[in-house]
Amino acid sequence: MKTTDFTERFLYHIWDAGHLKPELYTISGRKIKIISPGRYSSSAGPDFREAVLALDDDLLRGDVEIHKTTYDWKAHGHSNDRNYCRVILHVVYQHNVNLDFTIDKNGRNIEIFAIQDFLDDDVSRIFSGYQDDPHLPKDKFCSFFAGQSAELLAPLLAKYGSFRLNEKTKRFAAEQYFTGFNQLAYQGILEALGYSKNKYQMLQLANSLTYTQLRSFAADGMTEQQLIALWLGCSGLIDKLPATFPAEFILKWKELYARQEFIKEQMEIDWHLFRIRPVNHPAIRLLQVSSLVFESLQGSLFNKFINLFSFPAGDIKMSDFYQRIYALFIRPGEFLPDKYKLGKTRLDTVFINIILPLALLYARENKFQEMETAVLYIYNNFHALPDNHITKSMRQFMDSAQIRLTRKKAVFQQAILYINDNFCRYHTCTSCQTFKSQTCSEMFGVHYP
Hints:
The chain is of the alpha+beta class.
């Protein structure tokens, strides 16, 4: 393929889906093992966040940037951008410079991986179904939903929903190379509460001021108010709270931060606060979970999540389960007005995206079959989450019965996100149809169009 035949979006799909040969090497000759490709990011900065790779015997965790050519790194201005200083691999289609490494703002050498010579045999088929059109018409035909009865669609969507849950579980498993379940739970919550604008920034905070550090500070006498002061002071958010927030609390936290001796390090975090609603402000989100995190420092944050799944065998009541989740997170606070309290719909999203896959990983690693069964039961019966722009957009391809079905359960919505993330995002409709036919054949024993 020539680089004029496709955009970077198609390369994202190749990297994300792993359409590569088993033996991979960088331009400098180091062997690559992709443990986790990372999470695609549509915001400013690297294309994939928190990838986990092995380069020879070195295990690395960081970001991955993808370009059509190596020179694009310089052409796009990344060599002078501090947002790219956590990149651990520069993935390109064509290597077109006379250097074995890409150089970041700090002068660090970044390994280059040119995928042109490492594509697997499926790429030709994928490329034939690729449509490089970022503006699909509203009446575009979608073969996944077309002519599919709601009766047959339900088990298929449940299956795709399980694929998405497994992807999340694998991602957390890869991150376990570097940390434990408490840190995964802590950083997962903060990241999820960052929304699209500040997810990465909240993750930076959690990785800079770790759960282990906080437990150590708590053992040395840190109070909950000091925890808040540390979060806001180290991150720079203390001077960026909403204008309507009570000044007396800001002054108190500034004083606590100035007097404390736990940590003085200032983090370089590029918060995105322009036109953000006060309730979505990252500082407000930190205040919403401060009581839960601080309380857990005497024991284990992850154990609080595991206890959610403790039910008598075969006796799981979803109404009781919802109350457990909400009671764990929604707590009274002296400084947080009711309008800023963490809402149930946001908690549902945190549960599906963070708590549930972590619990499934824990159950599987420890071979706790009863717990795994409970996790999967709850996932398959959890009520629908709020719509996002993807689920709304995908409904243009559905009939009324299909729409009613997908609004019933979170697992069906997760299936739609799986379809979008793996196929629609890259416009690989042919691959989507092939994958659907294979899945239906495995599930039902017959071929479905």
